[in-house]
Amino acid sequence: MSFLPSSLDKECDRAARILKSFTGVSGTPTSAGKGKAKIPTTVIANAKGLAIFTGFRAGMWLSGAGGSGIVVARLPDGTWSPPSGFTVRSGGMGIVFGVDVYDCVCVLNTPAAVEAYTRPRLAIGSEVTAAAGPLNAKMDAVSDVKPVWTYTKSRGIWGGVTLDGTAISVRPDANAEFYGEPKISIERILRGDVPAAAPAAAAGKTKVVMWPAGAKKLTEVLKASEGKVADVSVMGALGDEPTAGDLGVVPDS
């Protein structure tokens, strides 16, 4: 098994499964936020952007981390932008012994928080303020909305898990491969100024634009997670299998 970054479509597939596991959605508005859901539907519906990733931490006294994921932004029409890929790196010192594999959803609550993810490198905690997000049961008591709310899930062995000091770096090569454009910028992606997917083979004289499988899954989970109707067949294909953060194991690349 490997926790190295994979293709952007595979990252989208992984992100879709992570978000589904955190929201408990199945594709209909009435399903959003039920069961063991951790992120309230209203949090996703009001978000300006989302960053979703799986990370891996290991160490003994000196700690280090790695991982990868995707970020999407809210467009002016209320839909979501295409995804942009990033890697995760961090290191630290402390009384640390063991390993930890975790899933994370960062809810970006302000335009500035989204803009921060367009930088080549971003440090969570120092460049953008992050705090643990509210759970379903605590949503009514929320009065202080931070620029970034974080939700993490892990069953690995770890002490003092925190995202402070975690560095997010853009993956220009993965973006270029996915969109078929060598120098595509993350700003254009998050503004929605690029095709959602590369054109498929021409059908007669008409080119049919289709989402790759993983990206399509992410699109539908995003809809369901904010209380909208999603494609139930796509949602059903995701199933309810545990994610890496549930198992405490390093995911396949």
In words, what does this structure look like?
The structure is a single chain. The model is unreliable at 156-160 and 198-209 (pLDDT under 50). Helix content is 26%, strand content 30%. The chain is α+β, with helices and mostly antiparallel strands and 253 residues long. It has eight helices and eight strands. The N and C termini lie close together (7 Å). Helix 1 (8-23) runs parallel beside helix 6 and helix 6 packs across helix 7 (232-238). The strands form two sheets. Strands 1, 2, 3, 4, 5 and 6 form a six-stranded mixed sheet that branches. The radius of gyration is 18 Å and the shape is globular. Strand 7 (199-203) and strand 8 (206-209) form a beta hairpin. It has one domain.
What's a quick, concise take on this entry?
By secondary structure, the chain is an alpha+beta fold. The chain is built from 8 helices and 8 strands. It has one domain.
